[in-house]
Amino acid sequence: MWYAMLRSLSSWLLISLISSTIIENIRDECQTGLAILTFYYFDFCHVDKQDARNFLSSLLVQLSDQSDKFMQVLSVLHSSHRHGSRQPSEDELLQCLKEMLELPGQGELYILVDALDECQNLTGFLTPRQQVLDIIKQLVDLKASHLHLCVTS
User: Fold this and answer.
1) Domain ranges in the chain?
2) Taking CA 137 as the corner, what is the angle to CA 132 and CA 141, rounded to the nearest 5 degrees?
3) How many CA atoms lie within 13 A of 131 on its CB side?
4) Which of 136, 94, 143 is closest to 114 using CA atoms?
5) Which of 61, 77, 120, 122 has its Cα between 20 and 30 A from that of 48?
6) How far is residue 115's CA from residue 99's CA, in Å, rounded to a whole number?
7) At what angle do helices 90-101 and 128-141 cross, to 10 degrees?
8) What is this structure's pTM?
9) pLDDT tens digits, the chain, 153 residues: what are they?
10) What is the C-alpha separation between 63 and 69, in angstroms, rounded?
């Protein structure tokens, strides 16, 4: 039993090391102003970080922090929801993200999704993991040449 736990821990450490290495390499490119990086870690210890809403919200905030153009898109969403007094739906958050990603004249944009397997996969109509996978599929379907996705599990 302890061997299986140790093996699992070793796999987790390797994936975390790989993700950290990817992030550090991309950050070097970001410092030159040639790229934008966002990342999200699904943490099994924090149930509130294991859903599509928090995933999308985090990406939107990270993108907006790095670009005035992205901030303008998010500001329109914020204004259309009475300046934050109403919560946007997950579909509206996704649409906002798509609008950001489809803006012309962008440099390279990286989205790293780490530990997707830690996103809940409960039984039910549409599990949190399935929702996130659907979002990722929709981002891939954009076929944006500047968008690079990396998903670890």
Assistant:
1) 13-151
2) 150
3) 21
4) 136
5) 77
6) 26
7) 30
8) 0.82
9) 443 443 444 444 445 667 777 777 778 777 888 899 998 887 766 666 668 999 999 999 999 999 999 999 999 999 999 887 899 999 999 999 999 999 998 899 999 998 777 666 666 677 888 899 999 999 999 999 999 999 887
10) 9
